[in-house]
Each structure stands twice: as C-alpha cells, then as structure tokens.
Amino acid sequence: MLNKINLWKKSSNSSTLRDRIVNTKQHSIPSHIAIIMDGNGRWAKRRALPRIAGHHEGMKVVRKITKLANQLGVKVLTLYAFSTENWKRPKSEVDYLMKLPEEFLGTFLPELIEENVQVKMMGNKEQLPTYTLNAIEKAMVDTKDNTGLVLNFALNYGSRVEILEAVKHVLNDCKSGIMNENEITEDVFSSYLMTSEFNDPDLLIRTSGEIRLSNFMLWQLAYSEFWFTDTLWPDFNEEDLLDAVDAYQSRQRRFGGV
Ligand code: FPP
C-alpha cells in the first residue's frame, strides 16, 4: 500500500511539474538540449554486469527522453553517443557501441517517424563502420521531411577537432578570396561548425556526477546553462528531464549583460 501511495505521489508530482513547464512556462522551454550521457559502465558494474549491459540500458533511455523532449516542444536534442576519444576503449566495447545505432534505429525508427522526429548526426563519418553509417544515413533519409524534434547524435565527435577543421576551412576560404578576414565574426565562424544549422544549446545536462565537458561542444556551450546530476544515465528518466528543464526555467540568462 505504502509503495502504491509513493508511486502515485511521484507520478502526480511529475505531472504537476510537467503541466507547469508546458503550460505556464512554454515560452522558456529550452530550444536545444545537449546531453552527455555518462555512467553506463558504473551502472553495469553495480549490478555485476558487463559494461555493454549499461550501454544497452542507456539506449532504451535515449528512446524515453527523445519522446518527452519532443512532447515538451524542444527543437533539438543533441546526444553525446561516442567521442573521438572513445576509440581508446577495449575493442569489444567499441564494437558494441558501434552496433547500437543500428539496434536503436532498427527497433525505434518507425516510432520516431510516427512522432515526426528528424534524425541527424554530427561527427567524423569516415572512421565509422559501414553498418553504423548505413543505419544513421537511412534514418536521416527516412526522417528528412519530419518537422518535430531533431535528434542529433554526436557520434565520433570531438569539439577540438571540429574547431580545428573549421579554422582550416575558414583559412582556405580567405586564401581563395571567398571571404575576407575582417568578415570572420562569431556568427560566421559558427557557420563552419558541425552545428551550423542549429542554435547553440540552451541547456547542457551531464549525468553520473562528473563535472566536466569532455571535449563536447566547447564553442557552442559558451552561454548555455549547465545541469549536473549524480544519476547514472541508465537510471535517468522523464522526471529527471523535467527537473532539469524546471531548473533551467528558474535561471536568469544574462549572456554577459546585467
Ligand atoms: C558514457 O558512459 C557513455 C558512452 C560512452 C556511450 C553512450 C551511449 C549510449 C547511452 C547509448 C547510445 C545509444 C544510441 C542510440 C547510439 P561510460 O561508459 O563512460 O560510463 P562510466 O563512466 O560509468 O564507465
């Protein structure tokens, strides 16, 4: 009985929070949320399971969080799924992580299409196995006309490499006369990054208690609000996302002004 009451109380609280977020503060729903999904390995270790079990559970959370973010009216959800540094992990774990997009999209693509979600990817495609790239590219084609939330996977993504590549590209354009160096503004430079079609994230979430950026969107996060939680990614749920958005809505963003 006690459990039932607690459960009821929990879902009643989260529906109140959801109502408040959606109905009274719709104007300040973060348009772009970026998430560093951390803690899969520790989640598995605590259960004496192999690390890949944590990644598999984490994949299911991606589905839940995408659905809620779309319902809340978030426009872009960027998820750090594999960094340029993650290749240093044991081959068996890397292989598993590379198969996850195929499994995720093989399972959930029809639902994502039904929910009007558009799938995108940013990162270096060249090093990705063919099956990973094929799964992502098929999803991108199948969802290209969707107008709801953009689910943007950062896959084989590293922010320093992204910035270096943008610098080289800008230099080339200056050398070849396409652009003059006086025209390089922040907006122009942003247009050379992999996120050129999106606004910068309004809110960054990192799970698992780590308080660092780990080479994620270093330029784009300059004025974002940060929200950290000790919750491990496989345990992250709808209520956690609502808490993060609620915290975001209570922040005063000044962008350097007063
Ligand atoms: C970090 O946790 C997590 C990753 C490097 C992988 C994230 C991937 C997913 C959540 C699944 C992605 C799903 C799709 C659909 C592509 P960690 O392994 O570093 O955890 P630890 O710090 O506890 O060891």
UniProtKB/TrEMBL annotation:
Per UniProt, the cofactor note for this protein states: Binds 2 magnesium ions per subunit.
Write out the residues that bind substrate. Answer: 39-43, 51, 55, 83-85, 87, 89, 206, 212-214
The protein's required cofactors? Mg(2+)
Q: Under which main EC class is this enzyme filed? A: transferase
Segments traversing the membrane: none
Coiled-coil annotation reads none
| Keywords linked to the UniProt accession | Magnesium, Metal-binding, Transferase
For this protein, the record's InterPro entries field holds: UPP_synth-like, UPP_synth-like_CS, UPP_synth-like_sf
- Entry annotation: catalytic residues: 38, 86
This protein's GO cellular component annotations are:
cytosol
Q: What are the recorded Gene Ontology BP terms?
A: polyprenol biosynthetic process
Q: Does the keyword Magnesium apply?
A: yes
Q: Which Pfam families match?
A: Prenyltransf
Q: Where does Mg(2+) bind?
A: 38, 225
| Gene Ontology MF annotations | ditrans,polycis-undecaprenyl-diphosphate synthase [(2E,6E)-farnesyl-diphosphate specific] activity; magnesium ion binding; manganese ion binding
EC number of the protein: 2.5.1.-
- What is the role of this chain? Catalyzes the condensation of isopentenyl diphosphate (IPP) with allylic pyrophosphates generating different type of terpenoids.
Q: How does it assemble?
A: Homodimer.
Family, similarity comment = Belongs to the UPP synthase family.
Instruction: Report what the protein is called.
Output: Isoprenyl transferase
Q: Organism, per UniProt? A: Pseudoneobacillus rhizosphaerae
Gene from which this protein is expressed:
uppS
